[in-house]
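EI: anyone free to look at a 468-residue chain?
SC: sure, send it
EI:
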Amino acid sequence: MAINEQDIQAIVRGVLQGMQTGAGATPEKKLLGIFENIEDAIAAAKKAQKEIQPMPLEFREKIIANIRKKTLENAQLFAELGVKETKMGNVGHKILKHQLVAEKTPGTEDLSTMAWSGDRGLTLVEQGPFGVIGAVTPSTNPTETVICNSIGMLAAGNAVVFAPHPAAKNVSNLAIDMINRASVEVGGPENLAVAVANPTMEVSETIFTHKDINLLVATGGPGVVTKVLSSGKRALGAGAGNPPVLVDETANIPKAAEDIVNGCTFDNNLPCIAEKEVVAVDQIADELIFYMKQTGCYYASDEEIAKLVETVFNVKDGKRILNRDCVGRSAKVLLEKIGVSVGNEIRCIIFEGQKEHPLISEELMMPILGIVRVKDVDEGIETAVWLEHGNRHSAHMHSTNVNNLTRYGRALDTAIFVKNGPSYAALGFGGEGYPTFTICSRTGEGLTSAKTFTKSRRCVMCDALCIR
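SC: here you go
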């Protein structure tokens, strides 16, 4: 089934109309890979995987190259639609995320072969596909996660059944359509990535338990990750974090302030790796706050912080839960909600508090940075460990003392540790390495890529193929 540019434009108009009216996209049946019934979606993915697996790696790369091309072409569209549908994040930063995914997500080059040869023959260990993967994706990075996962999973020879977050279903499904169009255009199969038009908890439950789903990958909050890890299937869990950033007395303070604010405010603090709170050694704390103000921070009063607590949290059954209308909003919007008017130059809200303060101890995913003052680096490390809550996700530090950096890294034991840079350097943006939007701290895989979505397969030839 081919789809032309007029069809694509009609789909986009439908998606936009659906977002404005609160309904789904009207021409959903035209979206490649999008089904009404989850059983049909899984069956289609299983058929597509059987077609792609025997094809040469070179052909998989041909499809992936077209996915990269189309991602770059549609980066602005996906960014705008993502912000419009979820009401979270920053269009400019989301464009950069899509460019990063398109240009630096590993493909088939990430796969490798181990070999032993000797008098008794040749043994190879190769990385083979699981088959059909079930993948939960978040509303914070709806299209970025779909595209990044699809590249890695396809490179490994899998097909994928997505369970997008319901609050991002339109834009996520449009990205799935793009994946399939990229395949069809170069002669590949449809339905390498599939989903249903209206994801529900029942749909997710079917994916988690279905006999034809061989691997589960969850990118989201602790609830869905726990659910996937309890499924009885092989599962990868990319859960929450509350990344602290520690600044000691040896740091380059002006640079540390700029890096921290840039990292914290990227896409309005939606990335799970972003700086969520600052731990500052007393000797440099005032200087750090001074430079943070110079870099676009608003220092909130105690009264304003009390209002923010009431605004960004709702109370349910005696427990604080995040107010979704505040997640991923800019500092300016958050301040407007408590009656404070500021200019566009204000990017972040800062304040000082104890580590137990709710705006410090809880992951907010909004540009609010609490600063905890400590007497020395030893107390700083102890405080940061407490704040990270054992998620083992991400941590950051600014220091020129190698011993301090080493002790901090060992103490927090996180999947990501960024030293003397903004948090997004961990994803290859201003740092070395590749990006991912599925960081499996909970199950230990760390930054996922094509090789993560494979299983080891040993092939043994006895008494032959050794020609030494």
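EI: Confidence is low (pLDDT under 50) at residues 1-5, 19-29.
SC: 👍
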